[in-house]
Amino acid sequence: MSKRIITMIVLICTATTLLWTVGLIITIQDQFFYEASSIKRPKPTTSNIQKNNELSIVALGDSLTRGTGDETGKGYVGYVVDELKKRTNQHIQFTNLAIKGQRSAQLISQLKQKEVQRQLKEADIILMTIGGNDLFRGGEALRDLSTTQLEKEKEKFVQQLRTIFQLVRTVNNDAPVFYIALYNPFNDLDNGKETSAVVRSWNYAASEVAADYKSIICVPTYDLFELQVNDYLYTDKFHPNKEGYKRIGERVASLITLTKGEK
User: Fold this and answer.
1) Which residues sit opposite 233 in a β-bridge?
2) H runs (alpha helix) in 46-175
3) pLDDT digits over 57-89, tens only?
4) pLDDT given at position 145
5) Which domain of life is it from (predicted)?
6) Residues 120-169: tens digit of each pLDDT
7) Can you tell me the distance from the alpha carbon of 150 to that of 141, in angstroms, rounded to the nearest whole number?
8) Of 71, 120, 122, 179, which has the fewest Cβ atoms less than 10 A away?
9) Partners of 89 in the beta sheet?
10) 46: Cβ–Cβ under 8 A, 6 or more apart, which residues?
């Protein structure tokens, strides 16, 4: 074989080897050294971002939750929100569904409404007052403190309160519910001792119902108005004034524990 042919074969083999080596390098770079930025990651949806950055509070009940008697219009729920704003960077979404003069039977009807259930389902915290109108009935109870009648009213209220808690838990099984118990606005009257005993009895019954349900807390308020009651009442001598609501709000807020995701 001539020297010229041998030289051509060597050149061809060398070129082939070189091309194979270059191809291998390119393949390795494509498979193992691509830029991470070329991967498209899914972006979180706007609704998820808003939910993660929002604390939803829904309030239910009667005129106490509406804040009747507070000249600032805040009511206890306003003071609860103020306290929570000091402890969280989240936006607080507050919805007040309370109705003045509402009794427990009317709240049951309200809780069956689709829009109310939708609001409750999204709630992180639920606040509630109910029972004052069932007990005092616009002052009628002061004229008739017969034990038999009041016991019948209490039994009826307890059954309805249980239904209320069941309806709330059916819609939202996780959000803590803060049920604000009753105070006695009439403890400075002649029959104050009797009315105080009735209020304590109703509060005890309500706390026993609350104890049967997950994360339903019965918040006592009786002691907040026990001394110098008129200092904390509005001019109607029934609803709290600004200072009375502030006391209730501070107590409720002190019982609310925010999880890490809510801070």
Assistant:
1) 240
2) 46-52, 63-66, 75-85, 104-111, 114-121, 132-136, 140-143, 147-171
3) 999 999 999 999 999 999 999 999 999 999 998
4) 72
5) Bacteria
6) 999 999 999 999 999 988 666 666 677 788 899 999 999 999 999 999 99
7) 8
8) 71
9) none
10) none
* Cβ-proximal residues to 231 (8 Å cutoff; 6+ apart), any chain: 243
Pull the structure tokens for residue 32: 């193992």
Task: Tell me which residue of 171, 162, 160 sits closest to 212, measured CA to CA.
Answer: 162
**The tokens of 197 are what?**
């005993």
Q: What are phi and psi of 95, to 5 degrees?
A: -125, 120
Distance between alpha carbon 128 and the CA centroid of its chain, in Å? 10
Locate 84 and state its tokens. 């929570």
Between strands 216-219 and 125-129, the pairing is unpaired
Match 């002052």 to its residue by tokens: 139
- Residue in 228, 257, 256, 254 with CA at minimum distance from that of residue 241: 228
| Full-model pTM | 0.78
Decide if 130 contacts 107 (C-beta within 8 A): yes
Neighbouring CB atoms inside 10 A of 239's CB total 21
Determine the residue type at 87. Answer: R
96 beta partners: 59
Structure tokens at 178: 């803060």
Residue 50 has pLDDT above 80, yes or no: no
Instruction: Give the CA-trace dihedral at 78, 259, 117, 57, to 10 degrees.
Output: 10
- The interaxial angle of helices 104-111 and 147-171, nearest 10 deg, is 20
